[in-house]
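note to self: the first set is below, dont mix up w the second
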Amino acid sequence: MRLTTFIALLFLSLSVSADPLLIAAGAGYKKPLVEIYAAFDRSTGTKVEAAFGNMQQVMAQTRDSGRIDLVVGERGFLEKTGLFERYVPLGAGRLVLAYSNKALSDYRQLTDPAVERIALPDPKKAVYGKAAIQFLERSELMPEVKDKLMILATVPQVSAYLIAGTIDAGFINMTDAIGIKDRIAGFEAVPVDLYDPPRIVLAFPKDRPVSESAKAFAAFLGSDQAKGILTKYGL
């Protein structure tokens, strides 16, 4: 009986590992996803080919290539595209205000003349850029800081500017903030009542047959190991 079970599990592992995955995701989730992909590979033998970019790039790749097996992004954004049919929740994203060289005591200090440059991801292409605009408008800071704003392509690009010290503050997600915390002056989570927290999900494209590897990866996200990685990065 044990031998039969072992052979069945071995066959399943070989079947999954023979079917590689191509997963596209928003660039702001690269750090936790790379760790999860590596853990999935160790667990199943299945390699994940990873593609990261802003969500407009991810959607174009999903729509035009026909090769994307799974997508990680914000559910509301993905639903509007009409390209997906099943969603697996990963967690709620958190918007963070990060400081390059000197931490502020409060986000209201963004209006201080000493704060000259504030970066955010492109609100037309990145969910955290949209969240940053919501925050600035709902907090009524926008009129006083709009001339300080610098639009960059993605969350990781804002993080790179923070690390380099070329901006005073920047809006990124909690995931990236945790990853760069030792290289910046600090960060604070933005009050959740001042923006709509992104709902981060794994999505299955409608026009792509669901492979056994895709099913296995979705199931793996429910494991303690995957949940631990997501929690570590603020999801």
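second set (the one i keep forgetting abt)
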Amino acid sequence: MIEHIIFDCDGVLIDSEILSFAVDEKLLPDYGVTITARELARDFGGVTYGEMIAALNAQFGAEIEAVSYQERCEAELARTFEAELRAIAGIPDLLRNIPNPVALASGSDLARLDQCLRLTDLAGFFEDRVFSAEQVKRGKPAPDVFLLAAETCGWLPEQCLVIEDSPSGVIAAKAAGMQSVGFLGGGHRSEPDSDILSDAGAGYVAGNSAELHGYLQELGLISG
């Protein structure tokens, strides 16, 4: 029986993915890589900077150094977040109506998660139940960060439902022995992306926060 919810952060709680990939689209031509934010979201949602850069280097014959690129990108993104980052519409109300403790498990590092939760006033919903791929050996699509979240919180994997916007996150949830819901409420996603989340293993795909609220209510995981 499902009792607990583990949320991804970027593209599920906060509308950050569209901002992040827009920064990449702006910076990557300096390295000989021309690609749109939409293409980046499709191909690299939920993966680490290192994995994305390795793939782009191979695809475009570029020689981007991952650490220095990430530092440049995150400096630009921090300024963008301060000015533009928002919680996804309906998510704060949804969180307020979940009676059991919830957790967050993300591919982003802890410093960025702290900034994002602070800017969007969501930190209080998660308290110390915030987990990052930097705390484990393998990022998504490996299950490590979800298993860390469940173990630390004292939850069994089969008791957990994961909310994810990326195929890699859905695959990670399945590998962890958890059910998952795909979420299309972020600005980087649209209805055609439903199939890629379903194909990855999502048991249900919610187009927005209202649909997610209704589904969680059917499962008895939310009140109101």
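remember for set 2: The first strand starts at residue 4 and ends at 7.
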